[in-house]
Amino acid sequence: MDAKKTNKSGYTYQAVYRYLLDWIEAAPSDIEQRLPSLRQLAQRLNVSVSSTQYAYSLLEDEGRVHARPKLGYFTRASSTPLRAERSPSLLDTVFASARQPGMLALSSDAPAMLLSLEKPLLMIERELTRQYPCSHAPLYQPFGEMALRSVLAEFYTCSAHRCWQAEHVFVGSDLRSILELSLRALDLEGKVAVVESPCNWAVLRQLRAARMTIIEVPLAEDGRFDLQQLRQVVDSEPVRLAVLSSATSVPQGGLMPARDKQQICRWLAEHDVWLFENDGYSEFCFQAEAPRYRDFADPDRLLVFSTFDKVIGSEAPYGYLLCRSHTEQLQQLFLERAFRLSPIRQKSIAKLFTSRRFEQHVQRLRALLRERMMHMKALLETYGQGCLRIHEPQGGASFWLEATRSVDMRRVFERLLAQRIVIAPGEIFSQRGLWRSHLRLCYTLDWSKDIPQALQCLVRAIQDESIQDRAQTP
């Protein structure tokens, strides 16, 4: 594969992902195979190291490869080829299908697809490379580049009582790695976690990987918990961790009132429960000065985590966390994991964060998301034919839709695959298989495609599935 082939279809990381997938399928499956390093692969394919990192992260999420500290990435050994080993989960099928060429992914939750900062980021990187061709700093900083850690600490500091220092910030290769190390450092593996439901699929997957017992507390249509139900769970179960969305909930798009968040934080503090605040979408809340959980949480039981790619794009795949306590345990695990992240790329992200361009970009992207949301809402009202219950989200990049008749969205998903359309059925956002009549429909998609036609196909698939269900019901 050369650079020209790499750039022909979609984002660069997608071509790298397909290259690696072909490589893995062709390799012997009965023994582990060491994969090329990030830098080797980037040079071989004439792409950026960040693109290779993002592709490896996708494969790691799917369980196809695993990382070994200081050694790199390896395939997973099995007695039979991966595709024949077991039937893929619905989640794996959804995301594998969305990455296939020619698919229209109505499930693509990637705000930066509408407006990215990748070109400015790469320009800053080239400028820094010219200015500092030889750096005397260590090649790899185990906790992240100090420039980036300092910028993030300043970015999250909002008062003398809610302040952060660079030593509280840790940067890793991706969201999965950040969550994995956090759970281990805080001795939360195998414990009980409470999550909002529907819940971010990546969070659910990592909690399952850590062998945690997951208790889901459903969100109502207005984005609020049944507070008494939540109180009962916290009082009666040995909950050690709560994972909650910072501003608008993901993927539901609701916004919880400040008084509810304040009360929830009181209960968590009473029971010494860790709060992991998912801050990945807080910049996309449509309400100005929306309350965050961190405004009310016990600072010694708070961990905030996020990624850069939602705002910047796939050239910034790194994840990061902020945590005031247990920093020694985090440092030890980050040292052992030995992330090899580009120092110059991290410095470029830091420089971008401190520029006026970043603030302007976030404002423009938020306005564009709201505009596309309203456009998608109008299309749903025009073509929905009463099949979908529409709740306008208060932020984020997607609608959380419910069929007005009980329909299994997994079967709707399968019907649409035959038409090369991909949706995200609601049950992938639940450990218990809840939300089977729901789907996440994103408006950060390829708007050059015939979206009205795709929505009509979606509605027909729901109607056909509903008719079939009624015909089979005695």
Automatic annotation (TrEMBL):
SMART domains: HTH_GNTR. Residues 10-78 form the HTH gntR-type domain. This is PLP-dependent aminotransferase family protein. Keywords: Aminotransferase, DNA-binding, Pyridoxal phosphate, Transcription, Transcription regulation, Transferase. In the C-terminal section; belongs to the class-I pyridoxal-phosphate-dependent aminotransferase family. GO terms for molecular function: DNA binding; DNA-binding transcription factor activity; pyridoxal phosphate binding; transaminase activity.
